[in-house]
Amino acid sequence: MTHSTHPSIDPATLAQQIRAWGSDLGFSAVGFTGIDLSSAEQGLLDWLAAGFHGDMDYMARHGLKRARPAELVPGTVSVISVRMDYWSEPGLAEARAVQADEARAAISRYALGRDYHKLIRARLQKLAERIGVAVGDYGYRVFTDSAPVLEVELATRAGLGWRGKHTLLLTREAGSLFFLGEIYVDLALPESVRPERSEAKSKGQTGHCGSCSACIPACPTQAIVAPYQLDARRCISYLTIEHAGAIPEDLRPLIGNRVYGCDDCQLACPWNRFAQPTQEADFAVRNGLDRATLVELFAWTEDEFKTRLAGSAIYRIGHERWLRNLAVGLGNAPSTPTVIAALQARAEDASELVREHVAWALARHSSADQSSRAS
């Protein structure tokens, strides 16, 4: 990507137009920043050195490319950062109720509808093409959680919010219940936030979290090891989505009924009182996943999994990991005949990974049954 210059286009006017086009495409905010992320490099290196990325080898493999946009996409001069709300009704109380009902499957709210990767990437592509109509040929590349990009850092610098103590982006207007996306461009665009203000935030200032740290004790596995520091190896989202192998036994009881992702730190955050209901129909709940039981989902065959979850972010983990996660949930569920029968039905599953987690779950119920008899 070579640097494009368009002297007839006023950068400030273009930025204003991009915001308007982004709004038309369903983005709730659009901001701009430069590419000097040098102040974020040491934090990234320290995080990797601590091993907090777990099995996500690609995080270390790409190294500092994450903090150097022009190395990832040569010619990049500016970054357009966007966010899109995903929260769907009902509200926070219903999400908490699902987690409290041990027989139900708690699925992160962002995954209840269509896979955001495809939708947001397509919208970003349309925005990029609309810019091209205005400026002519230029270099760009779109991203949404799909490449070595420091999304929260870029969004912070673009004025879209601040990094919360749970490490997610927070805003006054919408909490943290939204997706992020980026377009790397070879156009010089005016930055939304003065670099010195962005740098201060990136160095750990609290933004508008103040003295609140509700997200930290809310994490079931204590994955938020300090304000602004997440050990992914303990994070339920990592364990149920990114991690391919057996879930560590000491963490399984802490996972409860969370079978895909985890919203606990966000549900505890006071700013999410202001979460904005999505205007995007594709993010509406599908397949009754907001009220499904663990037993019901555990009974799905691989064909049913593929058919029902086609177009869902959940589809990406595959049926085997889906069953692994559900087996853990069932191991933490009340010891009812229905739960025991569901687990026994997969005790001889073709997958060794599933069999091991089912055996663990059945052993937990056996132990609980013996304890209740003894008492």
TrEMBL record:
<feature type="active site" description="Proton donor">
    <location>
        <position position="145"/>
    </location>
</feature>
<feature type="binding site">
    <location>
        <position position="219"/>
    </location>
    <ligand>
        <name>[4Fe-4S] cluster 2</name>
    </ligand>
</feature>
<keyword id="KW-0819">tRNA processing</keyword>
<dbReference type="Pfam" id="PF08331">
    <property type="entry name" value="QueG_DUF1730"/>
</dbReference>
<keyword id="KW-0170">Cobalt</keyword>
<keyword id="KW-0560">Oxidoreductase</keyword>
<keyword id="KW-0963">Cytoplasm</keyword>
<comment type="pathway">
    <text>tRNA modification; tRNA-queuosine biosynthesis.</text>
</comment>
<feature type="binding site">
    <location>
        <position position="269"/>
    </location>
    <ligand>
        <name>[4Fe-4S] cluster 1</name>
    </ligand>
</feature>
<dbReference type="InterPro" id="IPR017900">
    <property type="entry name" value="4Fe4S_Fe_S_CS"/>
</dbReference>
<dbReference type="InterPro" id="IPR017896">
    <property type="entry name" value="4Fe4S_Fe-S-bd"/>
</dbReference>
<feature type="domain" description="4Fe-4S ferredoxin-type">
    <location>
        <begin position="200"/>
        <end position="229"/>
    </location>
</feature>
<keyword id="KW-0479">Metal-binding</keyword>
<comment type="similarity">
    <text>Belongs to the QueG family.</text>
</comment>
<dbReference type="GO" id="GO:0052693">
    <property type="term" value="F:epoxyqueuosine reductase activity"/>
</dbReference>
<comment type="subunit">
    <text>Monomer.</text>
</comment>
<protein>
    <recommendedName>
        <fullName>Epoxyqueuosine reductase</fullName>
        <ecNumber>1.17.99.6</ecNumber>
    </recommendedName>
</protein>
<feature type="binding site">
    <location>
        <position position="209"/>
    </location>
    <ligand>
        <name>[4Fe-4S] cluster 1</name>
    </ligand>
</feature>
<feature type="binding site">
    <location>
        <position position="212"/>
    </location>
    <ligand>
        <name>[4Fe-4S] cluster 1</name>
    </ligand>
</feature>
<feature type="binding site">
    <location>
        <position position="265"/>
    </location>
    <ligand>
        <name>[4Fe-4S] cluster 2</name>
    </ligand>
</feature>
<feature type="binding site">
    <location>
        <position position="169"/>
    </location>
    <ligand>
        <name>cob(II)alamin</name>
    </ligand>
</feature>
<feature type="binding site">
    <location>
        <position position="237"/>
    </location>
    <ligand>
        <name>cob(II)alamin</name>
    </ligand>
</feature>
<dbReference type="Pfam" id="PF13484">
    <property type="entry name" value="Fer4_16"/>
</dbReference>
<feature type="binding site">
    <location>
        <begin position="262"/>
        <end position="263"/>
    </location>
    <ligand>
        <name>cob(II)alamin</name>
    </ligand>
</feature>
<feature type="binding site">
    <location>
        <position position="145"/>
    </location>
    <ligand>
        <name>cob(II)alamin</name>
    </ligand>
</feature>
<feature type="binding site">
    <location>
        <position position="66"/>
    </location>
    <ligand>
        <name>cob(II)alamin</name>
    </ligand>
</feature>
<keyword id="KW-0671">Queuosine biosynthesis</keyword>
<feature type="binding site">
    <location>
        <position position="262"/>
    </location>
    <ligand>
        <name>[4Fe-4S] cluster 2</name>
    </ligand>
</feature>
<feature type="binding site">
    <location>
        <position position="215"/>
    </location>
    <ligand>
        <name>[4Fe-4S] cluster 1</name>
    </ligand>
</feature>
<keyword id="KW-0004">4Fe-4S</keyword>
<dbReference type="InterPro" id="IPR013542">
    <property type="entry name" value="QueG_DUF1730"/>
</dbReference>
<feature type="binding site">
    <location>
        <position position="180"/>
    </location>
    <ligand>
        <name>cob(II)alamin</name>
    </ligand>
</feature>
<keyword id="KW-0846">Cobalamin</keyword>
<feature type="binding site">
    <location>
        <position position="235"/>
    </location>
    <ligand>
        <name>[4Fe-4S] cluster 2</name>
    </ligand>
</feature>
<keyword id="KW-0411">Iron-sulfur</keyword>
<dbReference type="InterPro" id="IPR004453">
    <property type="entry name" value="QueG"/>
</dbReference>
<comment type="function">
    <text>Catalyzes the conversion of epoxyqueuosine (oQ) to queuosine (Q), which is a hypermodified base found in the wobble positions of tRNA(Asp), tRNA(Asn), tRNA(His) and tRNA(Tyr).</text>
</comment>
<keyword id="KW-0408">Iron</keyword>
